Each structure stands twice: as structure tokens, then as C-alpha cells.
Amino acid sequence: MQAPYPRLRALLRAVGDAPYEADEAGDVRFRLLDQDGREQWMRLDEIPLPSSVPAAWPRL
């Protein structure tokens, strides 16, 4: 998938076709493997990205 923004492109690569679920608060979590190969349920803002990916814009 082609995305014009480096951070979005990295998140799309990380998530891929991973299963996801929404909780009662409406937070969507993706089932991904952590660095040790264990399954973790993570929100987009919890997914570790390479240091070469630009930081997120600060929230106002």
C-alpha cells in the first residue's frame, strides 16, 4: 500500500493484515508480535516504529 506520509506508511506496514478488535471505549487494538515473538494487543500509538520514522505531531 502506498501512503504519502512516512509515519502512516510505517504503521500500515507494521499492522498489515493483523487481526483487530475495538474495546468498550472505542480503542482499536491490533494483535501483533512483540520483539520477543509474543502476541501483544496494541493501539496504533503503542506500536514501536524504527527511529528513522518521523515523530508524531504533538496534540493540541
Ordered list of secondary-structure elements with their pairings:
Blueprint: H1 6-15, E1 20-22, E2 28-33, E3 39-42
Antiparallel strand pairs: 1-2, 2-3
Could you list some keywords that capture this structure?
globular; alpha+beta; 60 residues
Task: State the major sheet.
Answer: 3 strands, antiparallel
**Poorly predicted residue ranges:** none
* Fraction of helical residues: 10-25%
Q: Percent of residues in beta strands?
A: 15-25%
Side by side, the strands of the main sheet go 1-2-3
Counted beta strands: 3
Number of distinct helices: 1
Output the helix-strand order. HEEE
User: Based on helices, strands and strand pairing, what is the structural class?
Assistant: alpha+beta
Q: What is the average of the pLDDT values?
A: 88
Rg on CA atoms, Å: 12 Å
N- to C-terminal distance: 29 Å
The geometry reads as globular
Structure description:
- There is one protein chain.
- With 60 residues, this protein is α+β, with helices and mostly antiparallel strands.
- Helix content is 17%, strand content 22%.
- Strands 1-2-3 form a 3-stranded antiparallel sheet, with no helix packed on it.
- Strand 2 (28-33) and strand 3 (39-42) form a beta hairpin.
- The longest helix has 10 residues, at 6-15.
